[in-house]
Amino acid sequence: MRILICEDSVLLREGLVRLLEDAGHEVVAALPDTDGLMDAVVDTDPELCILDVRLPPTFTDEGIRAALAIRAGHPSLPLLVLSQYVEERYASDLIAAQGGALGYLLKDRVADVAEFIESVQRIASGATVLDPEVVAQLLTRRNRDERMLRLTDRERTVLALIAEGKSNGAIAALLFLSEASIEKHITAIFQKLGLEPEDGNRRVLAALAHIENTGVADAGNDYQGGVR
């Protein structure tokens, strides 16, 4: 896989290069800041971009703004954002952005090499991988979602399976329904939850609403495993 890295810490940047290359991937560029980032995306044609949230010169939101710019210009390009701490607002911005696969992980996760490499591969394959701590932060500030009351029993069942990270095909097999029927249920769920196509990552947003409403204690593990 062709990977572009944008990380200001030379130690972490070089460490990521080594980890990824040892895992058989090709690092096509490793940048210390966002200068020339968009040109590098065009020139190197990466299959995944890894960016730090806080980058020079102000170390506030340069990385997240760069990620959103990449998402706008190259919506199908998978993104993995790394952060030292949970940046709930930035995570919300990325989840709501229209685009392809997304990862948001705390930098501590890089220490578990096998888990990190697996997350990289899942994101590149189309999964959305959110750090459990990020999910927890997203849920703590939200109130009980009254939109859930609009769902039928069948729609709640489908949504619960979405929250477990199951694909449409897997849900159809479990409920003994056709994939077309599952797609209709999911469309109805999105409509009743007020999730429009431009919201992006609607499966993640819908699953978050379900987890918040039901109080599933181990939901973070499902998210870290990837919800598509």
Automatic annotation (TrEMBL):
This is DNA-binding response regulator. Keywords: DNA-binding, Phosphoprotein, Transcription, Transcription regulation. SMART domains: HTH_LUXR, REC. InterPro entries: CheY-like_superfamily, NreC/VraR/RcsB-like_REC, Sig_transdc_resp-reg_C-effctor, Sig_transdc_resp-reg_receiver, Tscrpt_reg_LuxR_C, WalR-like. GO terms for molecular function: DNA binding. It comes from Microbacterium arabinogalactanolyticum. PROSITE patterns: HTH_LUXR_1 (PS00622), HTH_LUXR_2 (PS50043), RESPONSE_REGULATORY (PS50110). SUPFAM superfamilies: C-terminal effector domain of the bipartite response regulators (SSF46894), CheY-like (SSF52172). Residues 2-122 form the Response regulatory domain. Residues 144-213 form the HTH luxR-type domain. It holds the Pfam family GerE. It comes from the Bacteria. The modification 4-aspartylphosphate is found at D52.
